Each structure stands twice: as C-alpha cells, then as structure tokens.
Amino acid sequence: MTAPDHALPPDPSPGGATPGDAFHPELTGHADQDGPAPLRARLHHVRADALDGDTAQTGGMRRFAAISGQRVGSERIWMGQTHVAPATSSANHHHGHSETAIHVVRGHPEFVFADESGEEVRLQTSPGDYVFVPPYVPHREENPHPEEEAVVVIARSTQEAIVVNLPTL
Description:
Elements: E1 62-67, H1 69-72, E2 78-84, E3 88-89, E4 92-94, E5 100-106, E6 110-114, E7 120-124, E8 130-133, E9 139-143, E10 150-156, E11 164-166
Antiparallel strand pairs: 1-2, 2-10, 3-9, 4-11, 5-8, 5-10, 6-7, 6-9
C-alpha cells in the first residue's frame, strides 16, 4: 500500500483554505490566497485501500499508517493498522515516549509483556477489545490462530510511529 496520490505537503501560508484540491473539490477558501487548502484547515479522508506501509516495522507483523504528520499534518497523534499473520509472533519492542491505544478488529491476538517480577503476562483479546500500552513498556503481539490473520487499529500519542525493537522483554 502506498501513500494516496492526493496527499499534499503542508501549506506554509497562514489563514484559510483556497479552492479545493482534486480530491476535495468542495473546499473553498479566501480569495487572497492561491494553492491548495492547508493540511490543518480541512478534514482528511484516508481510504482503507490507501494505507501506507512505509512506516516503522517490527518483525512478525506489518504496520500501515493512516493518520500521521507526513500524511495529513497531524501534530500529536499517529493512527493506523497492524496485521499479524496466522501462527506468528512479532519481535519484542516498545514505542518510546508514545502512549499506544489498540482496538482489535479481527482475530484473537495476544499481547505479551513482563510484569514487575519478569514473568510473562498474556492478554488474550477478541474483536471489539481495547488494550492500552504505556510509554516504554516492552511487549510483543502474537497470533496463535493457525489460519486467521489478526488485525488491530492502533493510535499513538505522537504524530509518527516510534518503534524500538528489542532482543527480549
């Protein structure tokens, strides 16, 4: 999946929007400005088939960006999807200073982390469940199902995906 061809670079000019781009023809703006509407002066629609796989990755899973600073001009949030193939575990990792919220869309992924004593803890999830990952907490995702891909929506408190891959939890 690649970035949509309608993605625009940030408009450095202050103020309102100008007549819309090809993807947003309904946008209108101020008569004293030329060019496309600034990224932060309009809503952005990212189609499901336009997610961007060119983002930070961890072995055993595949991340796709939907909302990011680069794609839509967000400043404090990153959002996208993670896919874990059947019978696969991701590598151990954390997301730096970013908080991460996860919503399970498909499958029954398991989220594994180490408690204070170093023992592994497994959170077994189902579609509709949510998981919160605090900053710097090492974890991994596992998909124990032999045939079904696990898909989750992730949101982070930073505009870009921070991924620090680790040898252990």
